[in-house]
Amino acid sequence: MSITTSGLHHVTAIGGDPQRNVDFYLRALGLRLVKQTVNFDDPGTYHLYYGDEAGRPGSLMTFFPWPGTPTGRLGNGQATTTSFSVPESSIGWWQRHLEGLGVSVDPVESRDEEDVLTFRDPDGLVLALVGHHGGGDDRAPWDNGLVPVEHAIRGLHSVTLSVAQEDATADMLVNGLGLRPQSRDGNRLRYAAGEGGPGALVDVLVTPDAPRGLVAAGTVHHVAWRAPDQATQAAWRDELLDQGVRVTSILDRQYFRSIYFREPAGTLLEVATDEPGFAIDEPLLELGRALKLPPWLEPQRDDIQALLPALDLPDENDPAVADRLRT
């Protein structure tokens, strides 16, 4: 593969009640809602983007919250854990914080010399916080006052793909995305993009006896990897097609351009461009405060808004208010 990704762009999951989703990711995890929009393929539901102050690639967790959606099943052919990076010394704080909110957390475990705290969101989505070591994660967190900045999430750390057999998935990661094998611990294989580190890692968990996963509420819909620009993405698509991979056309997602394909075990992957970003249709200080629609859906705004429940956002989602609350 002549084109390689620099790391994760975003992870998209399926949720249930959108207000409950907002409450957890903004108030409990301290992320910023950087965009309220809709699922462009099903505009009767939100597409909510959470991340750092500007929604930079590698910080993003996004959701399609469909109220009443049946609960999915974890298993092979899925991304089964989404991990965020936090300072190495913050795992104890997060454990106390989440338990104080009534969130059930697993015992802290050590993996690749890092402490890992695993828990679930209100829809059962498996999440983890990884206390990164070895010089720290220098990405700036969203400082909103709800989570002390010294403990705040820095961005995505890694995703875990569950598979029954490793070889075909490993080949896709190496020859389709340009990742490199980094380590192996029993049935867990780690691959890294670029120089590796938080935001550039994927673990492949080989579980031959696990059931096939079912994508629904509480599961990951797809995992997106970074491309710097549209020209690189187009060349990348051509290379994948030459390898015999079934790839979608390039789709306009307003804040980035996307192509989609599946790795052999079944997980849906995306290559998303870093550009143009979330400030294309609203200023940085106002990100996530109002519903934004792409031009082709704007004529349907009244009908779309009538279908969507109103969201109550904490004042801290506004940087100007958050700054006043900290002082």
UniProtKB/TrEMBL annotation:
Q: Which residues form a coiled coil?
A: none
- Where in this chain does the record put each VOC domain? 7-132, 155-274
Q: Superkingdom of the source?
A: Bacteria
Kindly give the Pfam families that the UniProt entry links to this protein.
Glyoxalase
What PANTHER family does this protein's entry cite? RING-CLEAVING DIOXYGENASE MHQE-RELATED (PTHR36110:SF2)
Q: What is this protein called?
A: Glyoxalase family protein
Query: Which species?
Result: Allonocardiopsis opalescens
What taxonomic lineage is listed for the species of origin? Bacteria, Bacillati, Actinomycetota, Actinomycetes, Streptosporangiales
